[in-house]
Amino acid sequence: MPTKEEVRQALRNVLDPEIGKPIEDVGMLKDIVVEGGTVRVYVLLTIAGCPLKDRINDDVTRALKPLPGVERIDVVLGEMTSDQRQELVTQLRGSKPEQQTASPRSPPTWPPPWPQKDTVSASSTSTCGASRFPA
């Protein structure tokens, strides 16, 4: 039978697919319950309809299978509260939203990096109100 700490250590290898950090570090690991050979892991998704939920489930299962004494793995997926999501955003940005300052933008490059095309039309058949002006 694995210990809760052994399970936690194995889960350090499970990364959030989008953020690239361990699920525990980003607040997704809610709880671990070990009962005999059964390990139940409670994982919080950032949103209920997370398109990567199957991958997270598979990654958790794959990380725990090699542990000695694991007979069954239950991954229970839940959803973060809005406060938990905000805490994650704050953690990833490094400060609270109200402390965020607008980052200085680099000046526009001229000429622009895309191909230049003449976008002005002198045609009297233009649909941009040309019918109001005689040709």
Question: What does this molecule look like?
Answer:
With 135 residues, the chain is of the alpha+beta class. It has a domain at 4-97: GMP Synthetase, Chain A, domain 3 (2-Layer Sandwich), CATH 3.30.300.130. The chain contains three helices and three strands, in the order αββαβα. A hairpin with a 2-residue loop joins strand 1 (29-35) and strand 2 (38-45). The model is unreliable at 99-103 and 116-135 (pLDDT under 50).
Measured as a percent range, the helix fraction is 10-25%
Structural class: alpha+beta
The Cα radius of gyration reads 26 Å
Low-confidence stretches: 99-103, 116-135
CATH class membership of the domain at 4-97: Alpha Beta
| Dominant shape | elongated
- Oligomer description: single chain
Continuous helix count: 3
Tell me the series of helices and strands, N- to C-terminal: HEEHEH
Strand order, sheet with most strands: 1-2-3
The biggest beta sheet reads: 3 strands, mixed
Number of strands: 3
Mean pLDDT: 80
In short:
The chain is α+β, with helices and mostly antiparallel strands. The chain has helices at residues 4-11, 53-64, 82-93; strands at residues 29-35, 38-45, 72-79.
